[in-house]
Amino acid sequence: MDRVIMHVDIDAFFASVEQLDNPELKGKPVIVGGVGERGVVATASYEARKYGVHSAMPAFKARQICPMGIFVPTRHERYREVSNEVFKMLYSLTAIIEPLSIDEAYMDITKVNMEPLECAKFIKRNIKEKVGLTVSAGVSYNKFLAKLASDWNKPDGITIITEDMIPDILKPLPVSKVHGMGKKSVEKMNNIGIFTIEDMYNLSKEFCIEYFGKFGVEIYDRIRGIDTREVEVLRERKSIGRETTLKKDLSNKEDMKKYLEYFSEEVSETLKNKNIWGKTITVKIKTSKFANHTKGKTINYYTNNKDEIYKIAYEILRDMEIEDSIRLIGLTVSTLTENKVEQLTFF
Ligand code: TTP
Ligand code: MG
Predict the structure, then answer these.
(1) What is the chain's pLDDT, residue by residue, as a tens digit (347 residues)?
(2) Closest ligand to the CA of 102
(3) CATH 1.10.150 domain extents, the chain
(4) Does residue 312's CB lie within 6 angstroms of at least one atom of ligand 1?
(5) Is 224 exposed, middle or buried (0-12, 13-18, 19+ CB in 10 A)?
(6) Check: CATH 3.40.1170.60 for 15-74?
(7) Preceding amide of 155 cis, omega within 30
(8) CATH 3.30.70.270 intervals, the chain
(9) Distances from the Cα of 130 to the Cαs of 80, 82, 88, in angstroms?
(10) Cα separation of 309 and 312, whole Å?
(11) Cβ(56) – ligand 1 distance below 6 Å
């Protein structure tokens, strides 16, 4: 194998956390979310899945098919916290990690000094011991196959897909397993009598391009086990900020505080939408005489909470010596991360 790519995905994530925190729920059909009248299920424990309950199912339906199901509300902050612990463990092995969601990631473990199977076992054992959850791991020589592998033997599975297993292992799979094939594409394929990947081998590259547009070539390659996409480490986003040039110059700090309060809220909103956190807060001021004052403060944890951002911004403003009235005020949060876990020193 040239590259060694692993895909890790926590089993029944939200439900497993609920079972972890409340041992009475262990081994029981736990259904997370959908507590309200018209809610939908976020996820279900494997015990509940036996009855057919799954993510995005309307709660009333879940209740019908699994009347003994134990419904619990979601606790997103707790899931984020657990996710951070899991990622921290992963980052202790390599920095080449691409988080895909709160509970799954690709890792390029080519340079990790362990046999792939040993590495997968190591990760599973560590997450079980340190966090208390089971994950499924898939290893292969590209992302598409690694993800397929982690899904192969869920929960608590390890699957390795090697080159000699291609194309046999792919042939019987339904076309919906091809990464990039949406519901519409699957339907279109089925309509022309194509149900499995093996059926798709009859499609020429030209046909795929015509049929699937710009993803045509990718789809043509994927079904043959070809996927050259790299594991993409977090793109560094530099900062998120807001500033405004005032209609009327301000000279008292009380009025300036109101702007910072408003900007804190806006910036916090943006950070939350992007699912990122920052730990440097900077206040920028331009005076009526066009002098710039910029002062930043780096705290020792990541935040996207509006009150925390405002508190720091206010302290900065309070300590600023401003002689003239001001014509512009701004607030920026930088030193950003997509994962609240402080990146460790890597080897
Ligand atoms: P998944 O990894 O898709 O699901 P899962 O971890 O519950 O189960 P498994 O991986 O064993 O198949 O999603 C991770 C979490 O994301 C899941 O626990 C709950 C949440 N989620 C939703 O809230 N709504 C959804 O529609 C999906 C798919 C997931
Ligand atoms: Mg999962």
Answers:
(1) 589 999 999 999 999 999 999 999 999 999 999 876 668 899 999 999 999 999 989 999 999 999 999 999 999 889 989 999 999 999 999 999 998 888 999 999 999 999 999 999 999 999 999 999 999 999 999 999 999 999 999 999 999 999 999 999 999 999 999 987 888 889 989 999 999 999 999 999 999 999 888 889 999 999 999 999 999 886 656 889 999 988 889 988 999 999 999 999 999 998 987 788 999 999 999 998 888 899 999 999 999 999 999 999 999 999 998 888 999 999 999 998 876 654 443 33
(2) 1
(3) 175-222
(4) no
(5) middle
(6) yes
(7) yes
(8) 5-13+77-165
(9) 16, 10, 11
(10) 5
(11) yes
**CA-to-CA separations, 187 to 54, 82, 127, 176, 263, in angstroms, rounded:** 21, 38, 39, 9, 47
Top-tier CATH class for 5-13+77-165:
alpha beta
Q: Where in 268-338 does DSSP place strands (E)?
A: 277-287, 292-303, 326-337
Question: Using alpha carbons only, what angle is made at residue 293 by residues 291 and 294, rounded to the nearest 5 degrees?
Answer: 145
Query: Which ligand has the nearest atom to the CA of 79?
Result: 1
Report the alpha-carbon distance of residue 305 to residue 330 in Å, rounded.
17
* Backbone angle region of 132, left / alpha / beta, with phi > 0 → left and psi within -120 to 50 → alpha: left
pTM: 0.72
Cβ of 133 below 6 Å from ligand 1:
no
Rounded Cα distance between 45 and 39, Å, is 17
Protein residue with its CA nearest to atom 5 in ligand 1: 12
Beta-carbon count within 10 A of 151 CB = 15
Query: What class has domain 239-337?
Result: alpha beta
Distance of CA 294 to the CA centre of its chain: 33
Contacts of 64 (CB under 8 A, 6+ apart): none
